[in-house]
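Consider the tokenized backbone below.
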């Protein structure tokens, strides 16, 4: 680490360095210009999550989990705010604790996947696309019902 002329003058001063200029001798922490970007991303993810709570068939929890992670990197106060929300905070805490989904939520999610795939299947003109879409839906139902733990 090289010492600039101002710091060298402070170190060579016979009476030492006064407290007002001591901070010039200490290494400076790098500025964190990324933190506001994490907070902004957290708000965008929260907005998508709130849309997911209103629209049937569109997941909301995953966006709130990502928003909490973004807020944790940006500003822990916003993470605490998100976790203090009545419904959303409980969903995120349950996910972090590995408790999984309530059985009722699993049934609703699987039903929404089946309905969404069923209604949209006729709009896909190619048979390969229809088969692929059904496989995506079946994988979603498999994952939710067997891979995601059931909260008791």
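A designed sequence for it:
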């Amino acid at each position: 680490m090289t010492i600039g002329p101002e710091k060298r003058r402070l170190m060579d001063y016979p009476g030492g360095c006064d407290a007002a200029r001591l901070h010039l001798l200490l290494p400076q922490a790098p500025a964190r210009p990324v933190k506001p970007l994490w907070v902004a991303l957290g708000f965008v993810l929260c907005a998508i999550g709130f849309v997911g709570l209103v629209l049937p068939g569109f997941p909301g929890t995953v966006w709130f989990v990502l928003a909490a992670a973004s807020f944790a990197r940006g500003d822990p106060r916003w993470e605490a705010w998100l976790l203090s929300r009545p419904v959303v905070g409980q969903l995120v805490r349950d996910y972090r604790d590995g408790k999984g989904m309530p059985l009722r939520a699993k049934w609703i999610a699987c039903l929404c996947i089946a309905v969404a795939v069923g209604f949209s299947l006729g709009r896909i003109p190619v048979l390969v696309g229809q088969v692929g879409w059904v496989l995506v839906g079946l994988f979603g139902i498999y994952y939710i019902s067997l891979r995601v733990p059931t909260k008791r």
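The chain has a mean pLDDT of 80.
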